[in-house]
Design goal:
This protein has eight helices and six strands, in the order H-H-H-H-E-E-E-E-E-E-H-H-H-H. It has 364 residues and is α+β, with helices and mostly antiparallel strands. A six-stranded antiparallel beta sheet has the order 1-2-3-4-5-6, with no helix packed on it. Strand 5 and strand 6 form a beta hairpin. It is elongated, with a radius of gyration of 27 Å. The two termini are 13 Å apart.
């Protein structure tokens, strides 16, 4: 019996190479099929915009493929694991390795190490490529596949909150202390009840509030409107509170999303859903490490007993249940039912325990 957690170098490289090759072959096949189906449903909308042609179709493909890769890489790792272990089992290689003194965990160790490398590559790929492609594609869809406007940092129809007051700004220009507001409406409230509405054509930062020029005030109780001239209103708000009208978590890297969450917190806006998305940027790539454990049931048992197919189905079922639980937990996090850390990590830890229990009870 070997005391090392890993088998010999030759066996480890043999198992890891089989696993990695099959994983990426399956991923390539899935991407080809899914991108073809997606393009069939979306090409009509792309070509419907005047002036769009083959170049825009290929641009859509270049932006959509990274999203598909990121979404289905963990699933490809699961299928790669099941096919690899089923092949080893069918050829009696698992029996030979166990007869040589290897445990079930030692057989899975090379696969899990290779899956950890795949998870690292997946995280880097998501940070450098997928986030940018997703952000660009989301903006392109928003203009219905027309020409993308030059992003000068402007934001339209922005809502913010300071203390109990609500603020609506039609156009926001600039960054930080140089932010300029156009067409500003301040809803003055107390205990949730509307007291007055202040309107101004422009506003700039002034101390801890916003300087509004040519402001007018409509008093709700009396129904009277009066000119206020230049006033300072909405005190206590951060300068960047108007710059995050839409936060697309998929279109931001981990650090960018973290900075956006901190800015939203400073502006007094809710961030629980975005915090769940932030931690999910780590737990989702790391789920590749979990797949060899969930698919391990296909590696053991006698192939000639006729139950190899059933074991493969059980491994796929465990993997599918993990993806369902992961999506459910993330949805509950977005609804503020689960705390962000629980929404991102609970499915991973739960199925890690399930996989270990199944492996130990059946094979160790």
């Amino acid at each position: 019996m070997q005391m090392s957690f890993f088998p010999s170098r030759t066996v480890a490289l043999y198992l890891a190479r089989m696993f990695v090759v099959r994983t990426f072959v399956i991923l390539a096949a899935l991407v080809l099929v899914l991108q073809t189906l997606d393009l069939l449903s979306e090409s009509g909308r792309i070509l419907a915009h005047p002036g769009n042609g083959e170049a825009q179709v290929w641009r859509y493909v270049s932006l959509r493929v990274p999203e598909i890769i990121a979404q289905f890489l963990p699933f490809s790792v699961l299928l790669g694991t099941i096919i690899t272990l089923s092949t080893l089992n069918q050829n009696s290689e698992v029996i030979a390795l166990k007869a040589a003194g290897l445990s079930a965990h030692q057989l899975l160790a090379p696969l899990m190490l290779a899956a950890l490398v795949v998870a690292g590559v997946s995280f880097a790929f998501n940070e450098r490529i997928v986030s940018r492609a997703s952000g660009t594609l989301a903006e392109w869809k928003r203009v219905e596949y027309g020409p993308l406007p030059i992003d000068r940092g402007d934001r339209n129809n922005v809502w913010a909150r300071t203390a109990d007051d609500l603020i609506h700004v039609r156009v926001v220009n600039g960054q930080g202390g140089a932010v300029r507001l156009r067409d500003v409406t301040v809803f003055v409230r107390s205990g949730g009840a509307l007291l007055a509405v202040i309107r101004a054509p422009s506003g700039t930062r002034a101390g801890d509030g916003w300087r509004l020029d040519q402001a007018t005030r409509f008093d709700v109780a009396s129904g009277r409107q009066q000119a206020l001239g230049t006033i300072v209103a909405a005190r206590g708000g951060a300068p960047d509170q108007f710059m995050l009208a839409r936060v697309n978590a998929d279109g931001l890297s981990f650090l960018q999303l973290y900075d956006a969450i901190e800015t939203l917190k400073a502006a007094g806006r809710p961030t629980k859903a975005l915090e769940g998305d932030l931690w999910h940027k780590i737990s989702k790539p790391l789920s590749a490490v979990l797949m060899p454990l969930l698919g391990a049931v296909a590696a053991f048992g006698l192939a000639r007993s006729g139950r190899l197919f059933m074991r493969a189905v059980i491994g796929m079922a465990l993997g599918f249940l993990y993806f369902v639980a992961d999506n459910f937990a993330l949805a509950m996090g977005n609804l503020n039912v689960y705390p962000p850390l629980l929404a991102a990590w609970a499915p991973f830890l739960l199925f890690l325990l399930i996989g270990e229990v199944v492996l130990v009870r059946t094979e160790e």
